[in-house]
Design brief:
Helix content is 42%, strand content 20%. The protein is of the alpha+beta class.
């Protein structure tokens, strides 16, 4: 059984035409959200997990893009200049560096409340899949593979 919109709605259906138009304008594939929950995401161990999970998922064949704190840019103004750099390339280890990262991430209006909860206890990995038919997505087992990557990383500690 194919539960996709393609199988359910007839080609000449008005709802189908609207769906196809919407998808063409705004979508580039299905989205999977992965939430990593801890008492504090801003620890060396949790940031390493977030980075590993994000990078491993990014390498999967069916993945178009991955957004997470470890892959996102921190765009800000410093002394009148625009600074565009990753929140971190290498996970910070000192308490001062971790506190700085926490402060920058939680004060960023784009990422705080989106990729990082405002209390710093949840980090989200947003996975956008390639724009392939839902049947192929289900058949590929990509959701199971993403769960395996997350579970393996989260159990390492």
């Amino acid at each position: 059984m194919d539960p996709s919109v393609n199988a359910i709605l007839p080609r000449d259906d008005e709802g189908r035409r609207y769906y196809d138009e919407f998808k063409q304008l705004f979508s580039s594939g299905e989205v999977i959200l992965l939430a990593l929950v801890s008492d504090d995401i801003f620890t060396v161990q949790n940031l390493e997990r977030l980075q590993t999970i994000s990078e491993e998922i990014e390498e999967l064949e069916q993945v178009n893009s991955v957004k997470s704190l470890s892959l996102s840019l921190n765009i800000r103004s410093e002394d009148g200049a625009l600074v565009t750099e990753p929140f971190f390339d290498i996970v910070p280890e000192s308490p001062a560096e971790l506190a700085d990262l926490r402060s920058r991430a939680l004060s960023d209006p784009i990422y705080s409340g989106n990729l990082i909860s405002r209390d710093g206890r949840v980090a989200v990995v947003l996975v956008r899949l390639l724009d392939i038919p839902e049947r192929e997505i289900l058949k590929s087992g990509i959701d199971d593979r993403i769960q395996e990557i997350a579970a393996a990383s989260w159990q390492d500690g």
